[in-house]
Write a structure and sequence with these properties.
The protein is an all-alpha fold. It contains 11 helices and no strands.
Length: about 230
Amino acid sequence: MTTGARRRMGVEERREQLIAVALDQFGHRSPEDVSIDEIAEAAGISRPLVYHYFPGKQQLYEAALRRAADELTARFVEPHEGPLGARLLRVMERFFDFVDEHGPGFSALMRGGPAIGSGRTGAMIEGVRQAAYEQVLAHLRVASPAPRLALVVRSWISLAETTALLWLDGRRIPRPELERQLVHDFAALASVSAAYDPETAAVVRRFLADEPPDGMFADLISRLMALPEAV
């Protein structure tokens, strides 16, 4: 027989529940469009109880954002085994899984989020970008990159972010194509920089030497060779 009584949650358990509910709400709509009343209803508690755990929506948003930032950062973690192209493709697949799941929230986050507390929001976003940057450098086996190589990696991370935002606006290009294209974009950016910088050239030679005949970067060369002639 069901008594209808609700189990009381501890303080940390309730906070975790509210963060999870808020992250889900912010993931489906822009944070400005989500009210405390909606979060309270989704959590099955009263509005005053939400304020008991978080002073306001901004503080709850930042807690949810911190959780999302940690999750997004984890998407860039990949074992340093196998060809670089295959590793980067797996990273892009996980990255787009996150983008797909948290569409409006991801868009609002990367475009700055709510104006209030934007400094803290910006710091969390930059933390994700820095973590992604360090992960890519680790895959390249470079601890202290020269300026051109650093520019390649940061430019690629920015390109992935911009591509995801544009893709969310209509999703007119199939996800798998964009994921592969972004890996090819990395090879293209690195190759152009290699023409100007010996350090980048050494890195490009190294990861191309480890690439199998049917690998991601070989696929790019095949596509370029198959370009149709101008009419």
